[in-house]
Design goal:
The chain is mainly beta. 9% of the residues lie in helices and 34% in strands.
């Protein structure tokens, strides 16, 4: 055993010599670095910072170097952190790492919203395989933009006096400020200094100091100059001037080592002298370089220490009077280490403590860092004794550098130490002990376990063996170690365990050769604590100071489990609000208590089960202190020419802070403030001060005393002794005069004293009231000669009385009356109204109003409390009131407006009581919005004499939200049908009535109307029911004959001169019973009967000449529809006519589906129509040339009309987009009959009449392909003509070609083959057909996306020309085109440009036959009569 001790001692001494540092021996002694001779020893590696970064101030655009240098062998790698994050300096072109480790920042960036370089920087040094250390953090501050908070102003100064020229800038920029006199640099000397605010003080002014002054700020870039101010030096005044402060000292907080400047600049004549006191005591400045008196009496304290803290007062005296001012200096200190951590050697499983003591003001906080990473407290890393770091159960990974970092508000510091984990010394030659046997837990408690074992088998006696117990919590790899107290002892008690926790124990025996084998691990669980702790014994409380008490106690004897914490309860005596605080240890100091107050304390221990038993209360009183308040109600009473009586009241209760032992009275002559006389009296609340001089003013103040010292004193109050001893055996006489001067809410009362000056006057009593002077009374000092009575009512009659009084009583009163003036508010001068008011429309309900204010500076920055009022209104209706809103910015967002409404806006500005007039108005019309209400007052009536024709009337929507561009009438016989199954009738927007013809008799119809504007469709009106009459009137036949409504036979049609033969022949698609065979038979019968006239022959000749050519017949032979068929009635080959729906984005008409059955079974419809129910339409180019009757002529003459002829079985779907263009008339669509049937030829011109509606076209973004040849195009070109009355191109609804039974591939090929021919012309949308129910008509599907692409693989036909891509297309109801007997694909239509007049004339002359309107009308009527006769013959 002795040998082992010797080895340890020798090892410790050897390590101390090796390391050559005082702390090494201690560290080695605590943890021996080696075993017996021959073990290798690792040494501590010096690793520390030579230079650390410091706080730096920079300016924008400058370069900054943050210094950092670290020492170690090998050389460390230096990195930098900014605000806790590593900087990537490799890719940074502004920041770079210098060779010594310093950080260079080129061209510092700084703006109001972007401050990338400002922040906290930290240098990080790393040595691989050794560790990492971090430097202190340094703050980089970038001075703000150079701005002057205040500018110098012209002033004057008397010769010999002091003056201040202001030039206040940001504190960061003061080092960059200098002054110029007459634009030359000003030399600073003992008469001229610059204050920390940037202001200039010039003392002892001379004539040379006069001139123009300005301050200059040079913070990089061009200098910034302030305004110039003229300083005039005046000669000495002829009369004394009272002292006044130009700049008083203000309280400062400084850090040790800094400099504090207290200005105390005064003006007066004679020239004053300034002296300073500290804590009301003179302090010696002579011989001290740290205390300097600068220009104007300014005090400068350099290299501040904590002892410099206190209250500094400057006392200024010029022989006539004295003034003083004071300020406090608070000194803070950055953290400083009293004890730094020391390097430590240790073995695994040991416990160590790094010690660290710091001081500073405010008290620093301490955190620990290991290898540059923050140490987070845990069960094994604990902060003990406030600042020390304890590491329990060391493991190899704990090795490294530990740093104690202390920081407070004014700085931070770091100190570090190295921890080396030593390997156990290798065993010397000799046998090692085997594992101890039979390790058991002989005693298990909640917080400790006692282990016992037997000696190893290798050493049955084991007298010289020592044992080491290693233990850890289950699942934790950190082992802690406990050694036996003496050799041969085979038991150990492990303390400070956690209850209900499983621990793993193993025991190792050690002999002189080294440690042997370990025993098998033993798992033991501590017992749970289920009982509450008992009371904490030995509770004691003692007062530390007037505001703090320390309470201590011991651990409860019956802990019954781990004490988690304690609650300390305390309460002021006599109160019932007990407070508590959580405490982790066995003592606690409570601060912030009331001074000299008794408190009671008690402690309760807590474990996991809850609070234990409380201790008994202990009471203690805080220590006394000086009073914290001054005495109250100090008053003076002049007794005679040599004495003044002083009265006062004690300080407020709770501020005595001890027993009041007396009062200190201090008084002085008012003119000699430096000569203070002091007297201390007892606890009485008055004192008579005698031995004063006659006719002299004295100032008095009183302070309370306790055993701890003097409290704060009252303010100085003054009284003047009498010139002579006066009589006070009688009351004063009446004052010699009384004058009153009424104002609006106050009356100024002035008076002169009684004529008899030998009677003592203590003061004057002023009484006043409305009509009576006894309402209120005010007493004033005897020296006072005037008083202002405030808070009176305007225009009121007041009676005022004045009496002199003394201790005997009040004298005779003097009366006066006065009437206060009326309340008049002078109109402030108006402000300039805002200018440049603009209204920017943002949406249908929002307009932004902006303006400028000429009364603001050029940058239009608002720095005062002005605000703006925005008002707006609309003139519809005319009596609309203005709405208003206030804002403090130069713009306002007006919301909640009505769509498509013109508003007027104006703005005014208000600042305080001043306002401007309203500005000039700005106008803005909100954007349109889709109608939000349906058309109203919808009525349906039958047309007189035409029971199958009804007239729909309505009124525009009440909320149109824009100009109505059109209406859509929906009608159906089934009110519950889907909306896309209703028949629709478009109507132009300027019409409020519409006719619908050819309805079924005695049938209920339901009507709805929908309005639209440029933004879209509005809601539908409620359904209106109307039942058509049961029987037709007798006068209907002529009309029906004219309209061909009988459904039988053919009739001639009004055909314009622009007609060309059709491209292909086909039968009627509308179920007409007249087949081609019937037509031939009809012609034979007509000829045979001989009733046809020469006019009929001419008409037939015209029709014959327009029969399809042989080329077209060949093409028609190959024509077969690939788009399905439709259910139709009246022909042996029932066909479905094409059903169209329209993309309103591109007016592309697509097939909805394809029927697999080309001839489905016919379905009937409740609205019976046939192919002859077609209203003839004029296709002439100019209505002045050809005045033809047609159903659309009603748009300009009578009720608009349309028919449902051919709508049976159709289901066109229609989407109607709108733009903000002027409203376009709407095309009412009809089904188009086959082009080889003369009944349908008129449709080729149905869009050309100036009385018709037109589409607004747009250019399609995809090329148009068609399967028509040039010759076909030439023919189809003439099928539609533009009218000169409009600038928009009408779209043709006729189709002029088709391909028989073309499959999609061939259709695609045909399409592509012609796309090259068409690519330079206007692109056209396509139409496809689909089957549908006979009653289904145009519906409105959802808007397709604008980016919809055109698929050329589909068989397609351009139907409508499009013009400008930027404008949506007005919807048009486009007819389906079908045939009888066969199906046919869509046919292309080319819309030509309008020909000029000569061409039109030539085209009219080239027509094969022209008829005057009267002739055709007569012939048609005659032909229809023949048809009627023929029908009768055929029926018979």
């Amino acid at each position: 055993m002795a040998a082992r001790g010797a080895w340890r001692l020798l090892g410790s001494l050897w390590l101390a010599l090796l390391l050559g540092r005082p702390g090494a021996a201690g560290a080695a002694a605590r943890s021996s670095p080696h075993g017996p001779a021959g073990s290798a020893v690792r040494t501590f590696t010096p690793f520390y910072f030579l230079v650390e970064p410091v706080d730096t101030l920079s300016v924008r655009g400058a370069s900054v170097i943050l210094n950092c240098s670290a020492y170690c062998e090998p050389s460390p790698k230096i990195e930098w952190k900014k605000d806790g994050t590593f900087l990537n300096l490799v890719s940074d072109d502004r920041r770079q790492l210098l060779p010594d480790g310093s950080l260079l920042i080129n061209s510092v960036l700084h703006s109001k919203h972007n401050k990338p370089d400002e922040g906290y920087y930290q240098c990080v040094a790393t040595v691989e395989s050794l560790g990492t250390i971090v430097s202190r953090t340094a703050k980089l501050t970038v001075a703000g933009l150079p701005r002057f908070a205040s500018q110098p102003e012209s002033t004057s100064v008397y010769r010999g006096n002091s003056v201040i020229l202001n030039c206040e800038v940001n504190a960061d920029l003061v080092p960059f400020v200098r002054w110029e006199q007459d634009r030359q640099p000003l030399f600073l000397d003992d008469r001229a200094i610059i204050l920390p605010t940037g202001a200039l003080i010039i003392s002892n002014a001379t004539d040379k100091d006069g001139g123009l002054y300005r301050c200059v700020m040079e913070s990089g870039g061009s200098p910034k100059y302030s305004d110039e101010a003229e300083l005039k030096v005046l000669p000495d005044p002829d009369v004394p001037l009272s002292l006044m402060f130009l700049r008083q000292p203000s309280s400062r907080t400084k850090v040790t080592g800094q400099t504090a400047v207290f200005p105390c600049v005064t003006a007066g004549f004679p020239t004053p002298v300034t002296r300073w006191t500290k804590n009301e005591e003179e302090f010696v400045r002579e011989g001290s370089e740290r205390f300097l008196l600068l220009a104007g009496g300014t005090l400068q304290i350099s290299d501040i220490t904590e002892d410099d803290a206190g209250t500094y007062a400057c006392i200024v005296d010029n022989g006539n009077e004295t003034i003083e001012a004071q300020a406090d200096l608070t000194v803070q200190a950055p953290p400083e280490f009293l004890k730094q951590p020391a390097n430590i050697y240790a073995h695994e499983s040991m416990d160590i403590v790094f010690e660290c003591e710091v001081t500073g003001k405010p008290t620093p906080t301490v955190k620990w860092v290991k290898n540059g990473d923050m140490v987070i407290p845990s069960d094994y890393f604990k902060i003990v004794k406030e600042h020390n770091l304890q590491v329990l159960g060391l493991v190899k990974s704990d090795e490294g550098f530990y740093q104690c970092i202390a920081e407070n508000d004014v700085g931070n510091a770091q100190a570090g130490a190295q921890l080396i984990i030593l390997e156990h010394a290798p065993a010397t030659t000799g046998p090692l002990p085997s594992a101890p046997r039979d390790v058991v837990a002989s005693l298990v408690s909640t917080r400790f376990i006692k282990l016992t074992w037997r000696t190893p088998a290798s050493d049955p006696y084991g007298d010289n063996l020592t044992y080491t117990v290693f233990y850890t919590k289950e699942g934790i790899n950190r082992e802690r170690v406990e050694n036996t107290s003496r050799p041969g002892e085979m038991q150990v008690t492990i303390q400070n365990l956690m209850p209900e926790t499983v621990y793993v124990f193993r025991v190792v025996a050690q002999n002189k050769h080294g440690p042997g084998e370990s025993s098998v691990p033993l798992k033991v669980a501590t017992q749970p604590e289920v009982q509450l702790p008992g009371p904490a014994p030995n509770i004691r409380a003692y007062a530390n100071s007037p505001t703090s008490v320390t309470v201590t106690w011991d651990t409860p004897l019956s802990g019954n489990g781990e004490i988690q914490n304690y609650k300390l309860y305390y309460m002021e005596k006599g109160k019932d609000n007990e407070q508590d605080v959580d405490v982790g240890g066995h003592s606690y100091t409570i601060n912030g208590l009331k001074k000299y107050t008794e408190y009671s304390f008690r402690v309760v221990a807590y474990n996991k089960h809850g609070p234990g038993v409380s201790t008994q209360d202990v009471a203690v009183q805080t220590l006394p202190d000086v009073p914290s308040a001054a005495p109250q109600n100090l008053s003076l009473e002049v007794r005679n020419s040599k004495s003044i009586m002083i009265h006062w009241q004690p300080p407020p209760a709770g501020t005595h802070n001890g027993q009041i032992t007396g009062y200190k009275i201090r008084y002085r002559k008012a003119s000699r403030k430096s000569d203070v006389t002091e007297s201390i009296g007892g606890t009485q609340l008055f004192q008579l001060v005698e031995g004063l001089e006659r006719g002299t003013e004295y100032s008095f103040r009183v302070a309370a005393l306790t055993s701890n010292g003097t409290g704060p004193a009252t303010d100085w109050i003054s009284a003047e002794t009498f010139e002579s001893d006066l009589d006070e055996t009688r009351v004063p006489e009446v004052p010699s005069s009384l004058h009153v001067r009424p104002l609006v809410t106050s009356i100024v009362v002035s008076w002169t004293p009684p004529e008899n000056q030998n009677i003592v006057v203590r003061g004057y009593a002023i009484g006043y009231g409305i009509g009576s002077p006894h309402a209120q009374t005010i007493k004033v000092d005897y020296k006072q000669r005037y008083y202002t009575i405030e808070n009176l009512d305007p225009s009121s009659h007041y009676v005022i009385t004045l009496k002199a009084f003394n201790n005997v009583g009040e004298g005779i009163p003097l009366y006066e009356s006065a009437v206060t003036r009326p309340h008049t508010v002078p109109d402030p001068s108006p402000m300039m109204p805002p200018v440049g008011v603009q209204a920017s429309i943002l949406s249908h309900d929002t307009i932004r109003i902006t303006w400028a204010d000429n009364s603001l500076p050029k940058n239009q920055k608002i720095t005062d409390a002005r605000y703006y009022t925005v008002r707006w209104k609309t003139n519809i209706p005319a009596n609309t009131k203005y709405k208003m809103a206030n804002t403090t910015t130069l713009s306002y967002l007006v919301t909640g407006l009505k769509p498509n409404t013109l508003y007027e806006f104006s703005v005014m500005v208000t600042k305080g009581r001043r306002s401007s007039t309203w500005s000039m108005t700005a106008h803005g019309t909100t954007f349109e919005l889709v109608p939000t209400s349906p058309p109203k007052d919808v009525t349906v009536v039958s047309k007189e004499g035409k029971p199958r024709t009804i007239i729909v009337n309505w009124q525009p929507p009440s909320e149109a939200n824009g100009k109505i561009t059109g209406y859509i009438i929906y009608y159906s016989t089934d009110v519950n049908a889907e909306i896309h199954d209703w028949v629709i009738e478009p109507v132009v927007g300027n019409r409020l009535t519409h006719q619908i013809q050819e309805l079924t008799l005695d049938t209920p119809y339901y009507f709805k109307i929908q309005a639209r504007n440029s933004k879209g469709m509005g809601p539908m009106s409620e359904a209106v029911q109307f039942r058509t009459p049961k029987a037709e009137s007798s006068d209907k036949m002529p009309n029906d004959q004219a309209l061909g409504s009988t459904g039988k036979g053919s009739r001639p049609l009004d055909i314009g001169p622009d007609y060309k033969p059709p491209m292909s022949g086909s039968n009627s698609p509308h179920g007409s019973p007249t087949s081609p065979l019937d037509s031939n038979m009809l012609l034979v019968i007509i000829v045979s009967v001989g009733v046809i006239t020469i006019v009929i022959v001419v008409i037939v000749a015209v029709f014959c000449t327009r029969r399809t050519t042989s080329h077209q017949k060949k093409k028609r032979a190959a024509c077969k529809s690939v788009n399905g068929s439709h259910k139709y009635k009246g022909n042996s080959k029932d066909v479905k006519p094409p059903d169209l729906w329209i993309h309103h984005e591109r007016l592309e008409l697509k097939p909805i589906d394809k029927s697999p059955d080309p001839n489905p079974i016919m379905t009937d419809t409740p609205i019976p129509r046939n192919s002859q129910d077609i209203t003839p339409v004029d296709n002439s180019m100019d209505s002045n040339i050809h005045q033809r009757r047609n159903s659309y002529r009603g748009h300009e003459s009578e009720d608009s009309m349309s028919t449902l002829a051919g709508r049976r079985g159709m289901r066109p779907k229609m989407m109607m987009p709108f733009d903000a263009q002027p409203p376009q008339p709407v095309i009412s669509a009809h089904p188009i009959h086959s082009l080889d049937n003369p009944h349908h030829h008129f449709h080729s011109g149905s869009l050309a009449s100036p009385t018709r509606s037109y589409l607004h076209h747009q250019v399609n973004p995809w090329p148009t392909g068609t399967s028509m040849s040039h010759s076909d195009r030439a023919n189809s070109t003439e099928s539609v003509r533009n009218t000169p009355s409009t600038d928009t191109m009408p779209a043709s609804s006729s189709q002029t070609c088709c391909t028989d039974h073309q499959d999609p591939e061939s259709a695609t090929a045909s399409y592509l083959a012609n796309s090259q021919e068409e690519e330079t012309g206007p692109s056209l949308p396509t139409a496809h057909v689909r089957p549908s129910h006979p009653l289904k008509s145009f519906a409105v599907p959802a808007v397709p996306p604008p980016g919809s692409t055109y698929d050329p693989a589909l068989p397609s036909t351009p139907l409508l020309s499009q013009q400008a891509s930027g404008h949506p297309v007005h919807s048009v109801k486009t007819a389906s085109i079908g045939t009888l007997g066969r199906t046919r694909p869509p046919m292309p239509v080319i819309v030509p440009s309008a020909p000029d007049v000569p061409e039109t004339t030539r085209m009219l002359e080239d027509s094969e036959s022209n008829y005057e309107p009267d002739e055709l009308t007569k012939e048609m009527a005659h032909l229809e009569g023949l048809m009627k006769d023929l029908n009768a013959i055929t029926t018979a």
